[in-house]
Amino acid sequence: MNTTSLEAAAQEPEPDAAPGRVVLLTTSHRVAPGLLSWPAWQALRAADRVLCADGAHPQLPYLREAGISVEEASPTAPELVDACAGGHTVVVVATGEGEPALTDGLAGLAGSGRVRMPELELLPASYDLPGARLLDLVQVMDRIRAECPWSSRQTHQGLAKYGIEEAYELVEAIEAGDRDELREELGDVLLQVVFHSRIAEEDAEAPFSIDDVAGGIVAKLIHRHPHVFGDETAETPEDVKEHWLRTKAEEKRRASVTDGVPLGQPGLALAAKLASRVRTAGLEVPLPRGEGIGYDLLALAARAEAEGVDPEAALRAAARAYRDAVRTAEGVDG
């Protein structure tokens, strides 16, 4: 409907007529069209007119299927106020960008004091659930993979080094206590997961998607937390860890507590992980006796693990202190 027909449809206000009501209906593109809240459906069915500026709005086919008559119109603020004259209710189905020009216009009219304004209501018709923005990330990654000359040629092998780099940068942000940096680095790590999952979809022999990745970890978490999702109990963090390791061993049918420990990780972390597996399993395995710094470091890592200290983190903290001392000696600020 054009502006002329909209003006013709609006009724001239009577001196004592009720000013009516404007409902701005907002929806989330991350929620399937048609899944609206009950108050939204009530407002739509009770409205005298329903307007939408976007003829391709994803909600329109579902509203019309439900018997809601929707006019394709983009009214100005004065036109909308006139359309509400006589106590009428007009619902405006907001576009994806919202309706900034309309809302600014209504605010200007209300602030002028010269217009008897209708009741104004903002009604969210659908809400984003926690994690909904992950859908945006998946969609953006799909487009980048298809259209970016660099991203479209990447492989798991080519991206592997970035996974390591981003993980280290995340640890550094955590240890530095920088909240803004932490949020950014978490995003970079998440990107690696989504990127690899997108590449995996194209594998000819064993494809999988981000949904398969998420579904797998959800099933694993539920299975390994029977004290949360099942009938078992866990009174202490140690109880949880013991059950976790036992369940992992049963799942993977490991012959040794050392199975599954990646030998390519940094040496101190590797030594601490092995010591943790041995201690948690209740095994009495003396440290090997040998000459050299390697055996000394092994003993220190095992001692740190037994005392609840992460030897890698402890060494990094000491190294940062050493770096600061060097910079001070050099007269370098910061």
From TrEMBL:
Molecular-function GO term, any one: methyltransferase activity
Q: Does the keyword tRNA-binding apply?
A: no
**Residue ranges of domain NTP pyrophosphohydrolase MazG-like in the record:** 154-229
Q: Which UniProt keywords apply?
A: Hydrolase
Its BP terms in the Gene Ontology are: dATP catabolic process; dGTP catabolic process; dTTP catabolic process; dUTP catabolic process; response to stress; TTP catabolic process; UTP catabolic process
Is Hydrolase one of the keywords UniProt gives this record? yes
Which domain of life does the protein's organism represent?
Bacteria
What InterPro entries does this protein's entry cite?
4pyrrol_Methylase_sf, MazG-like_dom, NTP-PPase_MazG-like_N, NTP_PyrPHydrolase_MazG
Query: What protein am I looking at?
Result: Nucleoside triphosphate pyrophosphohydrolase
